[in-house]
Write a structure and sequence with these properties.
The protein is an alpha+beta fold. Helix content is about 35%, strand content about 15%. The protein binds coenzyme A. Coenzyme A binds near residues 32, 36, 37 and 207.
């Protein structure tokens, strides 16, 4: 009777895919992922992480979101950087637990980083806006990062929120929850002190509207399709992406708020821009 063998990817085969995708030694690399889309990996998430680390090498820097959305109003426990599981994928939750990986203490949008510039991207106070100016993703973008979307699309690309922040989009100030002046997150600090509260202003959200960029960025050669394991993936330069999205937002401030099934926050954000546009239009008349 023939043996049934499961087709599996390995650290070596994944590293080959990453190199073919354009990931190079010394890169600063931001990764968003769906592990299921990659197909079976011998050794699991750990081996995918080793493939990423070996491809960028010791001079490279790897970043992943480890967001937990620890808002007190959502009845989630206070964020503890040493314990709270990432809510944005198994790869990310495995990554922050690895040796020599640093994790920021941001209670909603923590980020984990490994490599040469990890300390530079993750140090400092956590009073910055989650994905705004001087956040780890913004710092990585300024350092010339590449973004690799493994098996996911632009609606998972956090750097687009950085572009919104850099463009000063007024809708970012619309609270995430319906009736708060701002959203309140809570966390245990790095010394293990009891829960503290942090007002999160300019909460990112509305990323369903980022879908409009999927084909557009490919057509404009800002993003390129590639394959990692079985996963249709996308790679791009973060600075080029940011510059292009800022330009698009200047031309059309509603661009990223357009979706057939908009969330409540997207509807409220649209209303802000529409009111502004009609005020400008009235003023010009
Ligand atoms: C939500 C999301 C993480 C779900 O993706 P997913 O592939 O279903 O889940 P994960 O990446 O967590 O991987 C877990 C899966 O890995 C798979 N897996 C387990 N071992 C594996 C192995 N050895 N090889 C390959 N896959 C394996 C399992 O199927 C597991 O799913 P299961 O627990 O349902 O069986 C993904 O769609 C996503 O959005 N990713 C991006 C998140 C992000 O970066 N957000 C930030 C901006 S909002």
């Amino acid at each position: 009777m023939p043996f049934l063998t499961r087709k599996s990817h390995t650290r070596e085969s994944l590293a080959r895919d990453l190199s073919a995708a354009g990931v190079n030694a010394g890169d600063v690399l931001i990764v968003h992922s769906s592990l299921k889309k990659v197909g079976w990996i011998a050794g699991g998430a750990q081996e995918m992480i080793r493939a990423l680390q070996e491809t960028i090498g010791p001079e490279g820097t790897l970043l992943m979101p480890t967001f937990t959305f620890s808002l007190s109003g959502w009845l989630l426990p206070p964020f503890d950087p040493w314990n709270t599981a990432s809510r944005v994928g198994l790869l990310t939750d495995t990554f922050w637990r690895c040796t020599d990986v640093r994790r920021t203490a941001h209670p909603t949008h923590s980020v984990a980083a490994w490599g040469r510039l990890a300390a530079k991207f993750t140090s400092g106070p956590i009073s910055y806006e989650p994905l705004g100016i001087d956040s780890p993703i913004d710092r990585a973008c300024r350092a010339g990062a590449k973004i690799l979307l493994i098996g996911v699309e632009q609606n998972r690309n956090s750097t687009i929120h950085v572009a919104e922040a850099r463009a000063g989009m007024p809708y970012l100030r619309v609270p995430f929850t319906i009736d708060d002046l701002y959203d309140e997150a809570w966390y245990i600090d790095s010394r293990g002190a009891p829960a503290k509260f942090l007002a999160i202003r300019e909460m990112p959200g509305s990323s369903e509207g980022f879908e409009v960029l999927d084909n557009l960025l490919i057509q404009k050669n800002i993003a390129t399709r590639c394959v990692v394991g079985d996963a249709t993936s996308t790679i791009m330069s973060a600075p080029r992406l940011c510059d292009h999205v800022m330009q698009l937002l200047q031309e059309d401030p509603l661009l990223l708020l357009d979706h057939p099934n908009p969330s409540e926050i997207t509807k409220r954000r649209r209303a802000i821009i529409e009111a502004q546009l009609s005020a400008n239009h009235g003023g010009a008349a």
